[in-house]
Design brief:
Length: 307
């Protein structure tokens, strides 16, 4: 039996060091994300057989993340499969990356299926590349930034502090008003709630961020937090779409603000949004971190096996 309990801020004292020492670069293990999205997923956690295990709900179904730690993966996977059985659900593990998949394969029953969901792949970049925009491939981005600096010579980028959180929320509201698709309303509300949590627990979740001003007015902001020892996650980035080049500028400046110990920057998924996918690809990611869904074929069915 796995002794799961609801995820709390206090769990960061042991979760953050475990993930930091691991090779996990996917945004799902950023503690700021785990905490700020737990309202949507009913996230639970346990330290089981020396490993971090996470259980959550998605579309009413119990699901798990890839275990983290130096314990016996074979024993922990067997216990997770049994936990799902006791809950009356088919086993479902989400967000498993290539390296984790290879470690898991020997312990998966033959009737399990593995499928990839491109929409949830993370885009990971070298921090130095984003900070310098050097080289021919990133010349269009340098051009955007240089044009922005010519058009707005009084611009300023400064670290984000609690005194400016109200401005962030106001800019986010302005940004969301442009999103007129009715079917996105719930997603936008969930994103706002997640962001509000991070702002309310800024130091507790290890967040840092920056604000871009033009003429004394905030035109963009960005918020992120560490994942592991070499990868930093960008959780939120918003800009005034009427200010050309604001996204390119805030992206570059945030990369310069991130502590240099972080070699990589994870800019998260595109969720299948074509415009967002093209924008992320245009920065030429170092890694597209594909993720896999592992499930019991019965009773859920579906899922094409990946050989």
């Amino acid at each position: 039996m796995i002794d799961f309990h609801p995820l709390t801020l206090a769990d960061g004292a042991w979760i953050v060091p475990m993930v930091r020492q691991s090779d996990r670069r996917n945004c799902d293990f950023c503690f700021a994300n785990l905490m700020s999205w737990r309202f949507l997923y009913d996230t639970e956690v346990a330290l089981h057989r020396g490993m971090l295990v996470l259980r959550f709900r998605t579309n009413g179904h119990v699901a798990y993340q890839m275990p983290v730690g130096a314990g016996s993966l074979a024993d922990v996977v067997a216990d997770l499969i049994d936990d799902a059985r006791q809950a009356g659900h088919a086993f479902l593990m989400l967000g498993v990356c290539d390296g984790g998949l290879e470690r898991l394969r020997p312990y998966l029953p033959s009737h399990f299926s593995i499928s990839q969901d491109r929409d949830y792949a993370d885009y990971i970049y070298r921090r130095e590349a984003l900070a310098t925009l050097a080289g021919k491939k990133l010349q269009p981005k340098r051009n955007f930034v240089n044009r922005f600096l010519r058009d707005y010579p009084d611009c300023r980028f400064t670290p984000l502090t609690p005194q400016r959180f109200a401005e962030c929320l106001a800019l986010e509201r302005q940004w969301s008003l442009r999103k007129t698709q009715a079917d996105n309303a719930d997603d936008l509300n969930d994103e706002r709630r997640s962001m509000q949590y991070v702002l309310d627990h800024w130091n507790d979740v290890g967040a840092i961020g920056g604000a871009l001003d033009v003429g004394g007015r905030m035109v963009a902001f960005t918020i992120g937090a560490p994942i592991n020892a070499d990868t930093f996650d960008i959780c939120v980035e918003k800009a005034d779409a009427d200010v050309a080049g604001a996204y390119a500028m805030v992206n570059r400046e945030m990369a310069r603000l991130i502590p240099p110990q972080y070699t990589y920057v994870n800019r998260e998924e595109d969720l299948g949004v074509e415009g967002l996918r093209q924008a992320k690809l245009s920065y030429h990611p170092e890694i597209i971190l594909y993720k896999y869904r592992i499930m019991s074929r019965h009773p859920m069915g579906g899922g094409d096996a990946v050989e």
